[in-house]
Amino acid sequence: MDIKVLQEMQKQFDLEYFPGFWQINDDKDFLNSLKHIAIALAGEVGEFSNIVKKIDRIAMNLGREIDSKYVEMLKDELIDIFIYVLIGANLLGIDLDKEYLKRLEYNKKRFSRFKDG
Q: Residue 41 carries which DSSP code?
């Protein structure tokens, strides 16, 4: 599925379930929505990191195998992060396809010294 389609699906979901978020009349409203996304995104990244910490404690420090439930939890948190990225991109009017490809080319040049051969 195209990322633009996912962005549009997320926008429609947000408009249906959280219409107040998209009622942006001035810079203050925009900043409030931006702060909400930043805090929510940081929270989800924190939850993802906390699970990694638990996996590290269990697998590395206690020498046990990684329980598949933790991998499933990581998947859930990563999708939550992705959802907030979609919302943030919609809020900022970013075409994720286009901007990703631009950044990929930039990173190819930036990290070219790490490329084999």
A: H
CA-CA-CA-CA dihedral for 106, 107, 110, 115, to nearest 10: -130
Domain architecture of the chain: domains with CATH? 29-112 (1.10.287)
Residue keyed to tokens 């926008």? 11
**This prediction's pTM:** 0.89
**Among 18-22, 57-61, 109-113, the least confident range:** 57-61
Q: Which of 76, 99, 71 is nearest to 7 (CA)?
A: 99
> Tokens standing for 92?
């900022």
- The band of 106, judged by pLDDT with boundaries at 50, 70 and 90, is very high
What is the mean pLDDT of the segment spanning 88-112? 96
- One-letter amino acid at 8 equals E
Give 28-33's long-range contacts (Cβ < 8 A, gap of 24+): 30/91, 33/91
Residue of 28, 21, 24, 25 lying closest to 84 (CA atoms): 21
